[in-house]
Design goal:
Blueprint (H helix, E strand, L loop, with lengths): L2 H4 L4 H26 L3 E12 L3 H5 L5 E9 L5 E8 H15 L5 H31 L9 E6 H12 L5 E11 L6 E9 L3 H8 L4
Antiparallel strand pairs: 1-5, 2-3, 2-4, 3-6, 5-6
């Protein structure tokens, strides 16, 4: 499927995609609430299909450092999935996690465990979204061990393309807003699903979109 064909999708078709990612967000919120012992909500204000060539311009400054937790999934559909956020948001999330689970720590102690905490939460978020997709299409989607990167978004996308050797031309992007009880700020980010070539057509077909 070429990207220009995606412009022909009706609002109803896009609603199916949004419904799927909203289920994933709800699952993620439930899992994170259990992890933190606090009420957690995750809203998805927007979900859309975007050309991968527009990602770096639309979702981050070319020179802005971001934090990305990523993994790869296989099965009848395959591809890469990332949860990206600004470095400032990542640090705020780490502080919330430390306060909830570990109490007062010195900054150097926090720095030593920050990536592990982010990977744990990122794995929950990404797995929740993938489980929602897996359930909707009735197809298992095994995943790799998640990893984390701190770099410019374009560099991270290039790394994934080089490492896995394949990248489709269209991404499903879900804006996310994570709220933890008693924390006044919502934590913004984006979940990016980058299907391999041909996998997007298969996914949309199984969702009843095509």
């Amino acid at each position: 499927m070429e990207y220009d064909e995606l412009g022909k999708l009706s609002p109803f078709h896009l609603d199916v995609i949004r419904e799927t990612v909203n289920i994933g967000a709800g699952n993620a919120a439930t899992a994170l609430s259990q992890l933190l012992g606090s009420v957690v909500t995750m809203d998805v204000p927007k979900a859309e299909l975007v050309s991968i060539y527009e990602l770096t311009d639309r979702y981050a400054s070319p020179t802005e450092l971001v934090c990305a937790v990523y993994l790869r999934f296989e099965g009848e559909i395959s591809g890469n999935m990332l949860w990206i956020m600004s470095e400032e948001t990542a640090q705020e999330l780490v502080n919330i996690l430390v306060k909830k689970d570990l109490g007062d720590l010195l900054q150097d102690q926090i720095d030593q465990i920050a990536d592990s905490l982010l990977v744990e939460v990122g794995n929950i978020v990404l797995s929740s979204f993938l489980n929602a997709i897996s359930t909707m299409i009735n197809c298992p989607l095994p995943v790799t061990v998640p990893a984390i990167a701190h770099d410019m978004l374009g560099a991270i996308l290039d790394l994934l393309a080089a490492y896995y050797g394949m990248t489709g031309e269209v991404a499903i992007i879900s804006e996310t807003k994570l709220c933890v009880a008693n924390n006044k700020n919502s934590l913004g980010g984006h979940v990016m699903l980058l299907p391999d070539p041909q996998s997007l057509s298969t996914l949309l077909s199984k969702l009843g979109v095509l």
